[in-house]
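Example record for the data management plan.
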Amino acid sequence: MITTERKSKYKHKITVPSGSKNEHDMRKWCENSYGPSGRRNRWRFGWTDKDSTFYFRNGKDAMMFVLRWSS
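Corresponding structural encoding:
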């Protein structure tokens, strides 16, 4: 898992390597915790090359995600 900060509305970018078994569970957890994904919402999801990428507006949300899924 790689965490970076960027200049955007979604300042916190977390990249999960391709082949992660938990991607579906991660997305479902985010929906349950933060609401639906989307450009105008609290978080969103996308792909960078073959890796899964999660974007968060709030640093606390990104930190909770990392704490939940980093093992």
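Summary line stored alongside the record: The helical segments are 23-34, 59-69.
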